[in-house]
Amino acid sequence: MKKLFLILTILLLFLLGGCQTKQDTVTYNGMFFDTVISVTVYDTPKKTLEQDIMEFCRKYDNLLSRTNPESEISKINSAQGNPTKVSPETIEILEKSIEYSQLTGGAFDITIGPLVDLWDFKKSHPTLPDQKDIDEALSHVDYTKIKIDKDTVTLEDPLAKIDLGGIAKGYIGDQLKTFLKEQGIQTALINLGGNIVVFGEKSDHSPFHIGIQKPFDETGTPITSMEIRDASLVTSGVYERYFEFNQTLYHHLLDPKTGMPSQSPLYSATILCESSAQADALSTACFVLGVDQSKELITQLKDVTAIFITDDNQIKKLETID
Ligand code: ADP
Ligand code: MG
């Protein structure tokens, strides 16, 4: 059913021909980062903007995607402990990722790759991994093994694997915002597979209303919505990638301490803050940590709101204001 929904969405995007104009907005659609993306601008853009956005996204896909064997991340992962020279963008996202690992006490860890491979939520007939395989994969999950020296990255554990699934869309969202501003765009809504970034003022000065998905609802009905300006809203939800086995739901938000899908009694964790990289990393981490430990984390930060949907569909909100 989920697949059908995605196929219908993709079909619709093709029928729309990639670009759509409504009142004084223009929306560009594409498929990148394993998901559907759209960028709506509220200005009169130059003719080449669509092509420029697509090229921009392709560039980041080619740097950071683990499914592309030619990407810089794949090169680091297959270097068998040897140093790999990479671009400044790759260095920047790795440095930010390490910062979020430190901040979250390892609940967010981009060396989660061996565990993601083992659980493989994309395969058609998923099975439960053996405990010994989980233990083996877990022994290679450790962000302190990523060593960065200027433009060179080394994975000290040759079997470690970087997976940026928990932060890439957020980081790219921030980069895309900067890029659009450089192109003269004053107001836009960026949607990278549900990672939202908005900036600027609409002509009627109203805020952007962004919905938080009702868990497992395929019609796209929001459970609640937020009014946002110049900020990013990112959700990590169990319903995005999961399988069921013996009436238990196994999802893609993995606890780096146990090697299992996090046991937090949650359906989703959403973060609202200025930086989308931060919102993305923290949404994954807060899901793994659960409400109480997230409270300790969020109170250390400025201007961050966390919204949790518990597994009995209650909404819980934590907020820190500068
Ligand atoms: P998405 O919105 O694409 O589902 P999320 O931000 O919710 O992504 O993060 C989930 C993805 O992040 C997983 O698919 C996996 O690639 C990676 N991941 C899973 N657990 C962790 C973790 N504890 N720390 C960092 N990344 C993780
Ligand atoms: Mg995330």
From TrEMBL:
<keyword id="KW-1003">Cell membrane</keyword>
<comment type="similarity">
    <text>Belongs to the ApbE family.</text>
</comment>
<keyword id="KW-0997">Cell inner membrane</keyword>
<dbReference type="GO" id="GO:0016740">
    <property type="term" value="F:transferase activity"/>
</dbReference>
<dbReference type="InterPro" id="IPR024932">
    <property type="entry name" value="ApbE"/>
</dbReference>
<keyword id="KW-0460">Magnesium</keyword>
<dbReference type="InterPro" id="IPR003374">
    <property type="entry name" value="ApbE-like_sf"/>
</dbReference>
<keyword id="KW-0285">Flavoprotein</keyword>
<keyword id="KW-0472">Membrane</keyword>
<keyword id="KW-0274">FAD</keyword>
<keyword id="KW-0732">Signal</keyword>
<feature type="signal peptide">
    <location>
        <begin position="1"/>
        <end position="21"/>
    </location>
</feature>
<protein>
    <recommendedName>
        <fullName>FAD:protein FMN transferase</fullName>
        <ecNumber>2.7.1.180</ecNumber>
    </recommendedName>
</protein>
<keyword id="KW-0808">Transferase</keyword>
<keyword id="KW-0479">Metal-binding</keyword>
<dbReference type="Pfam" id="PF02424">
    <property type="entry name" value="ApbE"/>
</dbReference>
<comment type="function">
    <text>Flavin transferase that catalyzes the transfer of the FMN moiety of FAD and its covalent binding to the hydroxyl group of a threonine residue in a target flavoprotein.</text>
</comment>
<keyword id="KW-0449">Lipoprotein</keyword>
